Amino acid sequence: MLARKSQTWVLLLLLISASLFHFSTSQSDSPWAAKKRRMRDKVRKMLLYCVQHDELKPLTKTFTDSLSELGNLKLEHLPQDYNGSALTLIESLSSLVVLGNNTEFERAVLWLSENLTFDVDARVNLFECNIRVLGGLVSAHLLATDSPNRVVQGAYKNQLLTLAEELGQRFLPAFNTPTGLPYAWLNLKYGVMENETTETSTSGCGSLILEMGALSRLTGDPRYESAALRALRKLWSMRSSLNLLGTTLDVLTGEWIEYSSGIGAGVDSFYEYLFKAHILFGSEEFWRMFHSAYVAVQKYFRHGPWYHEADMRTGKATYWQLTSLQAFWPGLQVLVGDIAAANSSHREFFYVWEKYGVLPERYLLDHLMLHPTEKYYPLRPELAESTFYLYQATKDPWYIKVGEKMVNSINSYTKVEGGFASIRDVTTMQLEDHQHSFFLAETCKYLYLLFDDTFLLGRNYIFTTEGHPLPVLSSWHERLPETYIPTNWTFIKTGKQGRRASSMSLQVCPATMLNGGQRIESACHVPDSRSDHRCSTNEECGIDSTTCRPRSCSTAGYCGLWLFI
Ligand code: DMJ
């Protein structure tokens, strides 16, 4: 994707020289503030390793333009003269703004403006290209132009938006299916290739709305948003009577291929985008979809603080596994307002992090052990993301300590001379030669924001699933008054004080809440494992739907809310 003029490294040294010291001006403040500042500076140094190529190879101190992050793991379907997409540089753009490094941001924007093209014979994965490239460009354009963070002055003539639009146009042929569900793969130059696979995932076709919607709002061309929306509506129409979706499906027939699903791989960002689309675009339609989907997740996947997978048709548990991708869920729950549930799940994820030093890709909940093959940690961001959200919501210093431990582990296990390397096996801490682009886009960004949220002052942002911020603008909200007070937020009166509560705690739990005469399902409800309510341990007794308190097992062997236990 690059008409490369030079192959020089863009090691973002200025990142340190221009801004590290700018922020380090120490005032005499508390040891606590000094600790946060020290950690922030440590994360700032982690963002040093960036190149104008697709992926940094930290062990060999080189790079690759193989487009692997966009799906082509084996250099297949790439032209001889392919020069990459500068993916790592695109992914680092919004992180530079979060760090306040406007000089390097501007330099990167202008370099991309001159060198990036999408007129290449390369097969890419639509979802990956959307969240990383389109999302990176759209977010950077908004940051470059949106006050109060306007960072690029005279030289910027909307070049990133022009590039984003060019890419968006190249996405459109993928949506040309009888169902409106997009192909997972397409060739940027020639569109969907003959005999292309018709299989895609729920997240693959259900998490495009933020980037493509933003592109439509910015360009005035409705095609991107309407293609993404049509796909999302079709996907939602394929839910089971339990409001569950599967993991993979066929875009031509609109039939499910894999009926088992959870909140992790292949589905995760679908849930995230329903709710974030409601925040960004204000539409109640997204809220309604999210509400039903969230309740179904809590009802069929949740087991105490854990989430297993289940068959969408029956709701019966299928796989009892914790996967590192699931760790984004507590962060989403913070946005929803389900802080207590977020906190309890986050603690379990962090327990597994501490057990191994980092979070392994897959952990078997039924055996409390590692998955035999998926023992890797590719520097994923999800736990850092949830830690950041929980700290924002609670200001509990415990989350700062969690962040500190995470930064220290990442530095001690994965830092090498050429960057940060993925861990192949968490039991041996053997490394592999990958620094995935999401390390800069997400992992470092969320850790930084945990210690210094200056960027968030003055503007509301939502972060895409790849961690690229999009400002929440009232002009993007449909049918909403200037000062929008979401209908799903309210105040509960408790004594003299008003306590802010989310729709989830109000509308969903307790189960007795009525909505237009209709009983609403409780989100916290976890049924007893036996329908006769008999038990031998507390764990068999689930969560009470009215109080959201765990039930326990009485000495007579019955589940209930026994106050004396
Ligand atoms: C990122 O590319 C995105 O967060 C995506 O939604 C799934 N996870 C990876 C990083 O783990």
TrEMBL record:
Statement: the UniProt record of this protein carries the keyword Protein transport = no
Q: Which keywords does this Swiss-Prot/TrEMBL entry list?
A: Endoplasmic reticulum, Glycoprotein, Glycosidase, Hydrolase, Signal
The protein's location, in the record's own words, is: Endoplasmic reticulum
- Endoplasmic reticulum as a keyword? yes
Recorded hits in InterPro entries, A to Z, give: 6hp_glycosidase-like_sf, EDEM1/2/3, Glyco_hydro_47, Seven-hairpin_glycosidases
Top-level EC class as recorded in UniProt: hydrolase
Q: What is its EC number?
A: 3.2.1.-
Signal peptide position in this chain? 1-26
The family classification in the record reads: Belongs to the glycosyl hydrolase 47 family.
Name this protein carries in UniProt: alpha-1,2-Mannosidase
What is the species of this protein?
Answer: Ziziphus jujuba
Name of encoding gene? LOC107418437
